[in-house]
Amino acid sequence: MPHVIVKIVGQSEESKQRISEKLTQTLTDTLSIDEQFVSISIEDIVKENWVEDVYKPDILEKSDSLYKKPGYDPL
């Protein structure tokens, strides 16, 4: 039962819905599960707060659990 949290800056509701649909499809296909077992949350992050709210706590401090690392370093 995967739950995915997406943290994102400045996207429309339409884009968020597409992200949710594509992630759901990818998870159901890859894990061979029904979509009823998938939940997805999308959190809007203010661009100026990205480093403190996302980069430091979720990327730097949890780098051992990242399967796709970013190609940027804002520090």
TrEMBL record:
Pfam families: Tautomerase
Keywords, alphabetical: Isomerase
UniProt xrefs under InterPro entries: 4-OT-like_dom, Tautomerase/MIF_sf, Tautomerase_PptA
Record domain 4-oxalocrotonate tautomerase-like: where: 2-51
This protein's name: 4-oxalocrotonate tautomerase
Organism: Rouxiella silvae
